[in-house]
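Journal club prep — side note

Before the paper discussion, L.F. wants everyone to see what a predicted structure for a comparable chain looks like in token form. Sequence:
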Amino acid sequence: MKLSLEKILYNSASNGTSLLHFECRSDISELLLETLTSLCKDVGAVLQNEGYYDYMTVNSYLKLFAGLSGSDVTLDSAVRTMQLDGFLYCKIKSLTPSQKYRVSLAREIIMDRDILFLQEPVLGTDRDSVQPMIQWIESCGDQGKKVITTSQSLKHVYMLPGRHFFVDEEHAEELPENIFSKQEQSGPYMAEKIPARMGDKILLFDPDEIDYIESMQGKNYLHVRQDRFQCSMTMDELCSKLKKFGFFRSHRSYIVNMQRVSEVMKWTKNSYSLRMKGGEEENIPLSKGRIEELKEYYGF
């Protein structure tokens, strides 16, 4: 993993990209931070569960770090950027987790480091916290600072501006690009990319990233690593485009990536399901009428 991260950091430096966001487990996030600090000097970090001086006010806490930083960034500037004016003289122990995270970000603004590591920046944040944080991350990129974030949620990773990756113990891979509005799309859908919506964004997924597709209450959803994304294509369109990539229409409401299937389960004479890899409870319905088609198609 260290070699993968080194390569990503090198490539991002060479092409001017400085905002990198990783979907990963919490233990992988810790390994990423460890790897980053071994590769780079003076890394600023905001962790999901930080210790605070709970009986200090926000103002006194930030003044403490302003006295240590030696940078030109003022406390007032950090407070404005993270919109902390409303509780500047409140004790830290009285703040919500979301507000505490903004205080930590203000601390790192004051410290003015060139490389920052943020753990779960979106998790549990309220609307008032998300907007200034995303704007600040974007401004860091404009200034040439490197911001690296980690999250267990693919949705949260895609909320942040920059490049997006999935990383585990063995490898790191870049995730599909974001298209920020329908107007930015050009031409017809390509078979190699499947579109899905997340808020005002349209994401483009490679077929092999999709675990299965589910139709529910008149809407179709792509399931990708524990998250789901609404897709505007019909089930028939999806089945037609994805069949050559190893997808199978197991039920009128399900299309399954057979590379993700570990077992065909027979519960009763008329009840079947496909068990997905990685979770005993992830069972996808298999219609009795499609059993023979499945046997013929896959030769078992």
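L.F.'s comment for the group: The two ends are 38 Å apart (CA to CA). Keep this in mind when we get to the figures.
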